[in-house]
Amino acid sequence: MIDLRSDTVTRPSPAMREAMLAAALGDDVWGDDPTVNAFQQDLAERAGKEAALLFPSGTQSNLVGLMAHCERGDEYIVGQSAHTYRYEGGGAAVLGSIQPQPIENASDGTLPLEKIDAAVKADDPHFARTRLLALENTIAGKVLPADYLQEATALARQHGLATHLDGARLFNAMVATDSSLEAMCRPFDSVSLCFSKGLGAPIGSALVGSHAFIKKARRWRKVVGGGMRQSGLIAAACQYALDHHVEGLKDDHRRAARLGEGLAAMPGLTVTSQATNMVFTQVEKGHIASLAAWLKEHDILLDLVYATRFVVHRDINDSDIERVIEVIKAYFDRQA
Ligand SMILES: *Cc1c(COP(=O)(O)O)cnc(C)c1O
């Protein structure tokens, strides 16, 4: 199977599994797991923050990040298409009593500064208290421009807002811009990072920020059921990914670019964007179901019905990319 549904489908490599098996373990709710502690310290240093905290998922890491910044009756400014607004079950509102203030993302994924400015509410009992600006990088594969990140976070600070970054794919943005993790995290008070996407760990996300912030986050993580015991098993996989899988994201980006190029030449299909490890396309309505069936027959998995998104990851190689292009070309040739 060539599975292009998401970069979450990667399987842990034999070497990663070995690292997990070899990990020294303890009970992390007691703070006793040496592998977790070492991973959190290493990650915090690389991110240029005081502390880090391991989570089972990015959804929980984001939720707890929002809950550590905002209290009941506070609100966060966020993009309409942001994961922390649209794809997390409304968790901030449901579990955190935090009101989202969504604003429309521009086509490059940014939130226009004048819209952020206009969304900040006055200190008045009619309004929720605007507390936080939450951005996402990469968003739909797109890297937010560094200048924009400076300006948006400076604007937030002017208004006394904290800043959170959903960096589920921040390592993709980092290698795409030849930057460092420290530079990518610098504008933000807190950042959530995923290891279970392109980096290939089976489980694991982490939040980075100040000591005081992470202390609050540790409490909320326990409250939402994310306190884990011998989680060094997970931290070992994340550490392995951090040490060995970051550079490989460049290969994913090169392959996604090649896939985008190959697909752009097809009739009946339009490439709407290609950035980092993703290709977004539009398929003519009449073709969606039959193309999906054709791909499945040829052992290619794609979430065509929901969104014609192709996601490249470390379990996809160069010949897989060529095969996908060939199979789709054969589909449209047959129609002609
Ligand atoms: C995948 C993802 C998350 C977290 O997802 P989990 O499946 O809960 O780990 C958060 N934000 C973005 C942008 C993502 O793509």
Characterization of the model:
- This protein has 336 residues and is α/β, with parallel strands linked by helices.
- The protein is 44% helix and 18% strand.
- It has 14 helices and twelve strands.
- The strands form three sheets. Strands 2-8-7-6-5-3-4 form a seven-stranded mixed beta sheet, sandwiched between helices. The chain has a three-stranded antiparallel beta sheet with strand order 9-10-12, with helices on one face. A two-stranded parallel sheet has the order 1-11.
- Helix 12 packs parallel to helix 14.
- It is globular and about 60 Å long.
- It starts with a strand and ends with a helix.
- Pyridoxal-5'-phosphate (PLP) binds next to helix 3.
Secondary structure layout:
Blueprint: E1 2-3, H1 14-22, H2 34-47, E2 51-55, H3 58-69, E3 74-79, H4 83-86, H5 91-96, E4 99-103, H6 113-119, E5 129-136, H7 146-158, E6 162-167, H8 170-176, H9 181-185, E7 190-194, E8 205-209, H10 211-223, H11 232-244, H12 249-264, E9 269-275, E10 278-283, H13 288-297, E11 300-301, E12 309-311, H14 318-335
Bound molecules: pyridoxal-5'-phosphate (PLP).
